[in-house]
Design goal:
Layout lengths: L1 E2 L3 E4 L4 E8 L2 E4 L3 E2 L5 E14 L7 E14 L6 E7 L2 H15 L3 E3 L4
């Protein structure tokens, strides 16, 4: 069984559980069926973070931030599970390598390809 901060994968029972933290307390969504994973992917996405001031109306600013995302992909295009989003490339790469090794599938690094 693979256990990370963001996901638990049980390949023997073909299921997974997404994890998140609320006020420092780890919580899960419940077990879901895991399709046959063809590969693990590592990619970079650009996101917009909007900061709003509570003192004045209409006072907001936007910053562009990049995140490194790990996905599990199945046979069909719509078969995709987001594992995690990380600020640091090394953190995301480490998670992707661990999951790839555990599931015995290839890792496709779209950042350094």
């Amino acid at each position: 069984m693979y256990k990370g901060w963001d996901i638990i994968i049980d390949k023997e029972k073909m299921r997974y559980k997404k994890l998140y933290s609320f006020l420092g307390i780890p919580m899960g969504e419940g077990w879901k069926n895991l399709f046959e994973v063809r590969y693990v992917s590592l990619t970079k996405v650009n996101m917009i973070k909007t900061n709003r001031s509570g003192r004045t109306i209409g006072n907001e600013s936007s910053n562009k931030v990049e995140r490194f995302v790990v996905y599990l992909f199945g046979e069909e295009k719509n078969m995709r599970i987001e594992v995690c989003k990380k600020k640091a490339y090394n953190d995301a790469q480490s998670i992707a390598q661990q999951i790839s090794k555990y599931l015995e599938v290839p890792l496709k690094d779209f950042i350094n390809s």
